[in-house]
Design brief:
Blueprint lengths: L1 E4 L2 E4 L3 H14 L4 H8 L5 H15 L4 E12 L5 E6 L4 E6 L8 H4 L5 E11 L4 E11 L4 H16 L16 E6 L4 H9 L6 E6 L7 H14 L6 E6 L13 H9 L4 E5 L7 H5 L2 E2 L3 H47 L2 H47 L1 H6 L4 E4 L17 E5 L4 E5 L6
Parallel strand pairs: 5-7, 8-9, 8-10, 10-11, 11-12
Antiparallel strand pairs: 1-2, 3-4, 3-6, 4-5, 6-7, 13-14, 14-15
């Protein structure tokens, strides 16, 4: 049966309802139809409708449920907030994760196309009227979420070169100052101190939270704090006792790996048991299977250094003893050779040799001086032959102007009245030109 009321067509199989509605309309007429509906029907606001829908969904699904599907439209919001959709071949539903530490490594495993099981509360976002899931956990199909996050981060950091063996620094030869990043209240710190109690070294404990919310940031800050005292610290140990993968997860966080890689102090990771491997183990310069093994490694390093030092000292003493014995042997030999009589004869021979050399030196000097004297006399004679004085002594003269020392070679430049200077062998004559002949 159908009724047209106002601009709406009502269809119902309830004959009683339609009969009552029909009689009412027939009695009041068409113009009063809307008044009848307003009086007999509750009208909801949008907020009321969305609130009822939200309550209905939450009543229907009072507890979180597991939903399987493919992750799509993944994006990161502010803080720890993650948004994505979960779909299968026929449908899609929006999902939101608001952090809070309910699952470790969530952001590290999320990616579009991932097949996953999602633990979520079914609800509706009243403000926008959007049906969505409020996610508590994501479990990739075929692999644990934490293990997948571990492998994904390990692959990323390895590609960046953080695990390159060529960048790993060797342990110091002697360790005199140890910085220890760990929980000050755990058994680890007591085990390490017990093993190293007799070792001659300084131990600085830098406290850090090693499990739970904020542990990764606490560990990273402690590592950086150790780096600020790098000149005073020989080695840094980051340690924690055993536990589950989730208990150790702070050491699988990217900030811890980067802090270890950038630390100016040589680092040892000592996390969990021998079978436990964390990202920190790959980022550190050296991995110890356990915190106790790290303390024993440091102790062994110092003991080896002490043994090498003792061996070097023994070899040095032996070498010096050999040198001294050789010197003393030579001195004894010379002492035997140099008796007073032998020494006196040796000195007499040396004096005779010295006198002979002295005579030869004097004779050589005398002969050399004679040769040089003869050579000098010869040069003097040659110079006298070409000396202007020698020419003047033979009756020649040098004529020049009174104010010019240059010799006059011809009379062409002279004129009557010029004053001339005539240089003889021993005297000079000043005269005046009367005439110039041609």
């Amino acid at each position: 049966m159908k009724w047209l009321i106002g601009h709406s067509l009502f269809v119902s199989s309830d004959s009683r309802l339609l009969e009552l509605l029909g009689s009412s309309i027939a009695g009041l007429g068409y113009d009063n139809t809307m008044n009848i509906i307003e009086q007999s029907t509750k009208i909801y606001t949008v907020s009321e409708l969305n609130g009822l829908a939200q309550a209905a969904l939450e009543d229907r699904f009072p507890n979180p449920i597991w939903i399987e599907g493919e992750i799509t439209n993944y994006r990161q919001g502010s803080g720890d907030h993650l948004y994505f959709s979960l779909k299968d071949a026929q449908a899609e539903v929006r999902c939101a994760y608001f952090g809070g530490g309910r699952q470790r490594g969530m952001a590290q495993i999320m990616e579009n196309g991932l097949q996953a099981l999602v633990l979520a509360e079914v609800s509706l976002w009243p403000k926008a009227g959007v049906f969505q899931l409020y996610v508590r956990a994501v479990e990739p199909r075929g692999s644990g979420a934490l293990q997948l996050a571990f492998e994904k981060l390990k692959k990323k950091l390895e590609a960046e070169g953080l695990f390159n063996p060529a960048t790993k620094r060797p342990l110091p030869v002697i360790i005199q100052h140890l910085a220890l990043v760990t929980s000050p209240d755990g058994a680890v710190v007591h085990d390490i101190l017990r093993i190293l109690k007799n070792a001659p070294m300084t131990i600085t404990i830098i406290p850090a939270a090693v499990q739970g919310e904020g542990a990764a940031d606490s560990i990273s800050e402690a590592i950086r704090a150790a780096g600020t005292i790098a000149p005073l610290v020989d080695i840094l140990v980051v340690a924690r006792g055993g536990g589950s993968l989730e208990d150790l997860w702070a050491f699988n966080e990217e900030p811890v790996a980067r802090a270890l890689h950038e630390c100016p102090v040589i680092t040892i990771s000592a996390i969990g048991h021998e079978t436990d491997f964390t990202i920190a183990d790959f980022a550190a310069d050296c991995r110890a299977p356990t915190p106790t093994a790290a303390a024993q490694l440091i102790l062994s390093q110092n003991e080896q250094a002490e043994r090498r030092l003792k061996e070097f000292s023994w070899r040095l003493i032996k070498h010096l003893r050999g040198i001294l014995e050789k010197i003393f042997g030579q001195l004894a030999h010379f002492k035997h050779l140099l008796t007073p009589q032998k020494l006196e004869r040796l000195l007499a021979d040396k004096f005779l040799t010295l006198d002979h050399l002295n005579e030869r030196l004097i004779l050589a000097i005398h002969n050399r001086l004679e040769v040089l004297k003869n050579r000098l006399d010869s040069l003097r004679s040659q110079l006298e032959l070409i000396s202007p004085n020698a020419v003047l002594a033979r009756g020649y003269a040098i004529v020049s102007m009174i104010n010019d020392s240059r010799p006059i070679r011809e009379a062409a430049g002279l004129k009557s009245g010029d004053l001339l200077k005539i240089r003889l062998w021993k005297e000079e004559i000043i005269c005046e030109t009367k005439s110039v002949g041609r």
